[in-house]
Design a protein that fits this description.
By secondary structure, the chain is mainly α. The chain has helices at 5-23, 33-57, 62-80, 90-115. The radius of gyration is 15 Å and the shape is globular.
Length: 121
């Protein structure tokens, strides 16, 4: 996979996964096709915006990338669907926070396993 396409796929996946888990409040047994559609929309829009922003900014700062994905995911989530818990923006805030944390942790795990390939087995 191209080094330019891989981050886009990663950002879309992290944003969609954060949205999906937050929407069902962690109860994966409650997932429906509607949840998947909404999470896919959020992930596609937020991931694409983040990838373009990172590409234009030419940054490799992991904190900045994770924060950017979190903010973008939260804003997009707010506009894609109404919140299911708390105030109007609570779910969007939690989704953005989850996307930022997931982005940072996934990158840290990838860096760890690339530096220590023997720990992957």
């Amino acid at each position: 996979m191209s080094k330019k396409v891989a981050p886009l796929i990663e950002y879309i996946s992290e944003s969609a996964a954060a949205c999906l888990v937050t929407m069902v409040q962690g109860n994966l047994l409650a997932l429906t096709a509607s949840h998947l559609l909404i999470a896919s929309q959020t992930g596609l829009i937020a991931g694409t915006i983040t990838a373009v922003g990172i590409f234009v900014a030419k940054t490799r700062n992991r904190w900045l990338i994770s924060a950017g994905l979190g903010v973008t995911t939260g804003v997009v989530d707010f506009y894609v669907h109404p919140g299911m818990f708390g105030s109007v923006a609570t779910e969007a805030f939690v989704t953005g926070l989850a996307a930022a944390m997931m982005s940072y942790l996934v990158d840290a795990a990838i860096r760890h396993f690339r530096a220590n390939p023997e720990s992957a087995s």
